[in-house]
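Each record in this resource describes a single protein on a pair of labelled lines. The shape at a given residue is found from the number at the same position. The record below illustrates this layout:

***
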Amino acid sequence: MTKLENYINGEMVPPTSGAYLDNYDPSIGEVYSLIPDSDERDVERAVLAAKTAFPGWSNTSAEARHDILMRIVSLIERDLEALALAESVDQGKPVSLARSVDLPRAIANFKFYATAAMHTANESHDSVGQNAINYTLRQPLGVVGCISPWNLPLYLFTWKIAPALAAGCTVVAKPSEVTPMTAYLLSKLCSEAGLPAGVLNIVHGLGPKVGSAIVAHPNVKAISFTGGTKTGEEIARVAAPMFKKLSLELGGKNPNIIFADCNYEEMLATTVRSSFSNQGEICLCGSRIFIERPLYERFKKDFVERVFALKVGDPRESDTDVGAIVSKQHFDKIMSYIDLAKAGGGTILTGGRMSELPALAGGKRHAVDGTSIETSNVRFGEAPLPPAYAGGSDRLGGWFIEPTVIEGLPHDCRTNQEEIFGPVVTIMPFETEDEVLGYANSVRYGLSATVWTENLSRAHRVASKLESGIVWINCWLLRDLRTPFGGMKDSGIGREGGFEALRFFTEEKNVCVKLGN
């Protein structure tokens, strides 16, 4: 069984404790690898390595940093199929999604920030009348901490480390202990690309041990975190008194507002995708769907039919639409909300149950081309990919939930107010613009929203009144990496993306020079 290792000071090293945690393949519910059960001692080693590497890396030219990051891009592109498969095995998502979304976005993250760092500019101000000139320096902070979630593992891991590295910071990073595999594989690519020792350090393990140690370490100058709001609150409690810079991208309970004048077919296809992509385990999924009354019955019929037709299946099969839930703990949480909706008078229009799937022929997983996956013939550099499942059970045995659509719940019930983060959506009619804005803004979150209408004035009017950091009009998940990304209210503080992220990882310094008499 594969044992993952930490990446500290350019080397792959075991945890100081010598202990390991089980890592599950969620589609079969069985352990397939072991990850380091690291603690504050490993974090201390990583911070020391990063601190030692910082002077050299921060004084490396933006062009030289660009070249190293682009070598990492080339290696990810080379091993895209292997990484996509590893992501699917580790997270439960369809391999087709990992191949078409997760890996291309990880590549784009490195490309964007490698290039952006060469195009940053500092302002200067000619202070007329004062016989002086002011200019601003933006200098890398030093050692920074990056903590990423389990839903889009490599996608969001690189979203944090790429701007930090491009800005000239050195990084101590913690991927989710639930989905550590692609971060582990990335560490090998970083060494192959020639990233200097200590510039990026990856420490695996549990949040209360590793994450907390990173947040509390006095030599870590900033924390970039994506995850649950409750964890974000704890990070803020620890980091704020230490005056660390914080970027917290937290939970969401996003509204999808559909007006009767929408482009119906485009809306319907996109709404299915925005509800159930990645098993609904995307912070931007629209989990509360509000439909203008004249369109409600037509939408309900067509939407339920399309959702019912989604294929729940083996993530490695090319025609699978919905894969496995990432863990047993998260599976239980999602099912508890379905039970809560039933108890609250909600009607399950489709789904609402655990999905039991037959095992593949011969009891083995298959690649998307139909060939059997064997550890011996599919390798990633020197590290074998997760082994094929050869268990002989009658069923896949993992954690699958049928895509679920619920109606008949009030907008202020727990199912409509709390983040479920799974393949569960509610639908509800509305009469007026003001009414639906009240529903949409009633939650503690404010991450994203989607509005479907062909009325230009209404689109702008509604967008301006929605309490969301991101509003999509007649689309979903279209991302321009130059734009700021983040939420309002309990969905977080700060913005990622574009030059916002590069500025986050730097300290601004104003220099005022008197020009003489």
User: Anything to note?
Assistant: The first strand starts at residue 2 and ends at 3. DSSP finds 15 helices and 25 strands in the chain. Residues 360-395 have pLDDT under 50 and may be disordered. The chain has two domains: 2-250+491-511, 254-357+395-488.
